[in-house]
Design brief:
Structural class: mainly beta
Largest sheet: 9 strands, mixed
Strand content: 25-35%
Oligomer: single chain
Helix content: under 10%
Number of strands: 25
Mean pLDDT: 96
CATH class: Mainly Beta
Number of helices: 1
Strand order of the largest sheet: 2-5-8-11-14-17-20-22-23
CATH architecture: 3 Solenoid
CATH superfamily: Hexapeptide repeat proteins
Radius of gyration: 18 Å
Distance between the termini: 48 Å
Amino acid sequence: MSGGSAAESRFPNVRIHESSYVDERVVIGEGTRIWHFCHVLGDVSIGRHCSIGQNVMIGPHVTVGDNCKIQNNVSLYEGVTLEDDVFCGPSCVFTNVINPRSAISRKTEFRPTLVKRGATIGANATILCGHTVGSYAFVAAGAVVTKDVPDFALVAGVPARRIGWMSHHGERLGPDLICPVTKRRYREVAPNRIEAAD
């Protein structure tokens, strides 16, 4: 394990604050910035041009894609995979066991969690393990995800339910399914499923 400038020397073109630590068997892509009081455990892969905020813990056995933004006070536990362009808001929570007990070891029961490309997870949201958050989905602040989230879905509440659709650009779609900013069109292809029309 190495911290600060020693960690930076292991990863060219990566900025690691002197208060943060990076264990062995870690890959970090160029252009990534790791800020204060972070800990990256072993067997972790972090892509290029990511921003890892203060007090973030990642690993072990976690994959983070390119251009991800992980805000302050987030822990990515074993089994979490973030694809490219994922945004994790401050203090959002990932779990890796469904039914934890302090007195019972369940390390063999970890369930994987996949957050697909372009998804946004709002501040203080909770993602229960074993589920997939779809591409460009938007999980509202404080929501608790207890089942898979479709691509482009806007979900909110406890438990989280779909309340609308979001565009690639992060704008809420109206009944016409046209992004109000980019004018990109979407179409419904099945119940509870949309895709880009062009």
